[in-house]
Amino acid sequence: MYYDRKLKIFSCTSNLPLAQAIADKVEISLGKGEVVRFSDGEVTVRIEESVRGADVFIIQSTSQPANENLMELLVMIDALKRASAKRITAVIPYYGYARQDRKTRPRDPITAKLVANLLTVAGANRILSIDLHAGAIQGFFDIPVDHMTAVPILAEHFAGRDTSDMVVVSPDMGGVTRARDMAQRLGVPIAIIDKRRPRPNVAEVMNIIGDIKGKRAILVDDIIDTAGTITLGAQALLDRGAKEVFACCTHPVFSGPAIERLAAAPISELVVCDTILLPEEKRIPSLKICSVAALLAEAIVRIHEDLSISKLFDAT
């Protein structure tokens, strides 16, 4: 059993099963603390054990409801800081507001930067996250950010199959690096869907770059939100000669019409990670869930022991 009384893992409420799985992997108990809401909806936190001088990790995805979950995280960071924790690492498997990372129109906010400021001012000393929508978000922080990727976990899911007729497909130009990483791990070629967005959450396929005819295609993305991009892409691949389509992503946001679209989509298997806790009504028959608990547990131990995180990337 891993034991170090200075290492503590706490959890807010967004994804308690993942937090428990991480603690189990590290072989320690979750910290004794709870998030409490007053009758008017205000959030407070009760920490029921000493954290003085401790290296504390807080597990909390800022997924839907994003504002509630973000506020829980900020309040817990503040509570632990005031309780004299030596170092506080916010473990944010899914970093909400990441898509608001730049100005696309005049007078737009850059909310991903605002959230970074809030976390830092609250008292976080370090951030650990998985597949930020834009890698540049690391630069929004003036504290260390460890940016992990779930691509090896998703690739491992497909690695045991016959890959001779597979192709990894990026659903847009921005995801080419991710698709190339997965393709290299599987030893298969890549293709790219050239699309445009006439308005938010609406995508149109313009062209497909690469050979997909007669192949089994794996669409890979970081986020599936309303599922418009992934379902449109799957249909476009089949229309252009693909034999079968799989889809995978790190963060299953699944908002709005996503479940209805995915249930009707021509996707044989949908593979996601557990960075966001999915209620039963969103677990459609084609869904497979891969856990990031082991990855985050190993990262937490390495950070605590001041070991290289890049070695973990090499290992995966």
- C-alpha geometry: globular
* Mean pLDDT reading: 93
Low-pLDDT ranges: none
Sheet with the most strands: spatial strand order: 10-9-8-11-12-13-14
Task: Give a quick precis of the structure.
With 316 residues, this protein is of the alpha/beta class.
Question: What does this entry look like structurally?
Answer:
The protein is α/β, with parallel strands linked by helices and 316 residues long. 31% of the residues lie in helices and 27% in strands. The chain contains nine helices and 14 strands. It starts with 6 loop residues before the first strand and ends with a helix.
Keywords:
seven-stranded mixed beta sheet; 31% helix; 9 helices; alpha/beta; 316 residues
Question: What's the topology here?
Answer:
Elements lengths: L6 E5 L4 H11 L6 E5 L5 E5 L7 E5 L6 H17 L4 E6 L18 H12 L3 E5 L14 E4 L2 H9 L6 E5 L5 H11 L3 E10 L2 E8 L6 E9 L3 H12 L4 E9 L5 H7 L4 E5 L13 E4 L2 H12 L5 H6 L1
Parallel strand pairs: 1-4, 4-5, 5-6, 6-7, 8-9, 8-11, 11-12, 12-13, 13-14
Antiparallel strand pairs: 2-3, 9-10
Helix pairs in contact: 1-8, 4-5
